[in-house]
Amino acid sequence: MAHRSRLFTIPALAAALLATAASAQDDEARRGFVEANLLGIFYHELGHALIDLEEVPIFGQEEDAADVFSILLVDSLFDEETAQAIAIDAAYGFLGEVYLMEDEGEAVAWWDVHGPDEQRFYNTVCLFYGANPDEREAFAEALGLPEERAGYCPDEFDQAFDAWGDVLDGLTERFEAGQGEPIVLMPGAFEDAPLTARLLEVEVAALNGELRLSLPLSVWVESCGEPNAYYDPETAGITMCTEFEAHLHSLYDLVTE
Ligand SMILES: [Zn+2]
């Protein structure tokens, strides 16, 4: 419990900001949270897809590499204000998972391939801060990034940028040369996850306007029986489970209560 109260206290300022926004326009704040997390998760799965299809060498945990890729895309694809809003909501998504586990009395799964959600929270805040420390000091402070870590974050970001930069350049060069394969959003259970469907329609079209892969990548929206998302190398497909959207709505309730 001490752990939870510590996490609660650290981002109190951001929680207050979130609560103010929430009371003014709850629907909009809620939708922003759900969309930001869907986007973060989709980019994470896209990271897995690129590691497989583009044969990106990974030294360390692939899950960490996919998280890093996701933050990198948020930083590079959106204007400053939007990117910060997405990063705050995505970080809070990890915090929501922590609260959910505590409410359900589950212990941290140290054996899992993903890092603990507490750490994914701080990694998200650190990398995003490190990408533009001049403009994101208030962001780092509001989200409780300790100074002991903050000093390393610009270097952590540069390292991530170097690792993924060449991969992304390759994808855009292929697009410009009129070569390669697009991302294909397959027909699916869109009515069961309307925000997921809408976001993917916009996002897949935007990505296809900038990059091409070496092999076709399909994206599915379907029921999986659990709130999840995954990349399957057998089918070269990303599945965004319809259950994730409802799950994110409950996480929003947890982080704003
Ligand atoms: Zn993953």
SSE blueprint and pairings:
Elements: H1 2-9, H2 12-24, H3 26-53, H4 62-77, H5 80-103, H6 117-131, H7 137-142, H8 147-150, H9 153-176, E1 183-185, H10 194-208, E2 217-222, E3 229-232, E4 237-241, H11 243-256
Parallel strand pairs: 1-2, 2-4
Antiparallel strand pairs: 3-4
Helix pairs in contact: 2-3, 3-4, 3-5, 3-10, 3-11, 4-5, 4-6, 4-9, 5-6, 5-11, 6-9
Zinc ion binds at residues 44, 48, 63, 66.
Going by helix content, strand content and strand pairing, the class is alpha/beta
What distance lies between the first and last C-alpha atoms, to the nearest angstrom? Answer: 17 Å
- Please estimate the helix content: 55-70%
Number of strands: 4
Molecular shape: globular
Tell me which ligands are bound.
zinc ion
Q: Determine the strand fraction and express it as a percent band.
A: 5-15%
Mean pLDDT across the residues is: 88
Q: Main sheet: which strands, in order across?
A: 1-2-4-3
Uncertain runs are 1-13
What's the number of helices? 11
N-to-C series of helices and strands: HHHHHHHHHEHEEEH
What Rg, in angstroms, do the CA atoms define? 18 Å
What about the largest sheet? 4 strands, mixed
* Tally of structural domains: 1
